[in-house]
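Case study 2.
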Amino acid sequence: MPYPRVPALTRRTFLASAAAVSAGVVLPPRSDAAGLREFRIRAGPGRAQIAPEPHGDTPIWCYDGSLPGPEIRIRQGERLRVAVENKLNEETTVHWHGLRVPNAMDGVPHLTQAPISPGETFAYEFDAVDAGTFWYHPHHRSFEQVGRGLYGPLIVEEADPIRVDREVTWVLSDWRLTQTAEMREDFGNRHDMMHNGRVGNTVTINGRVPDVFQVRKGERIRLRLINAANARIFGLDFGNHQPAVIALDGQPVEPHAPEGGLVVLGPAMRAELILDMTADAGSRVSVIDRFYEGLEYRLVDLAYAGNPLRQAAPDWPVAL
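Prediction:
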């Protein structure tokens, strides 16, 4: 599919679009692309059970009241339209991380669009040119808006996907919480801004501190990983499993074992793994984050059910 041509953004067209935003929804021109998928998401305050009990809910910002935001899943070649409603008390935008989109749809405030004002809605529309694992988040004051929970996965499926038993998305992030599981209100402090960013003290998968992830012996999983943390780098050790990396940052790669046995993800990076469940039924295998020497911790346990799916891994092709 040819990459769509986008008219140059002039001062006149920018001011015109800004005026339209203040009036309500901005709908970019329709195209003749086969298949239009429409979504609507709402950015606003919410609450989430980030820390495990006995802690209570933590006030957050999120899309549609969920953490992470709803997974947007479409097929390669389809056209996507997402109307974003702003229920925050400040301006926001949405950036479609890793996707090739027209410049006017890139979500950069005061450059490619006027920010979405509180109470207003902006509609993003573009063709899903590439298949892969992507994510969406604000590009307006993102050091705080993303840090408070405004992010979600966007999956573009291949026309002919590889065969697996199950496909799973893990959105990894971290949070700087108080002892009572409240958000630390020190976003943008001088120390963080002068160093590597905001590193949290609580790590989550899909918005929660996980305990176990249920699997079955012989199962083949396509695991999509997204690092939504502001500054934390993950180096995941899957124990005696041997994950095969099949895509990085939304692009297929030759299937290979991760260097040093660790799946490394810097902030905003994505990776896709083929993970064969090869341990014994009824066992547990810990996934350990070993990136920071001396600060290793257990991320989650792969908990095997007592009834295996099959006795050995399938021999299906894994290359994208």
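Residues 1-33 have pLDDT under 50 and may be disordered.
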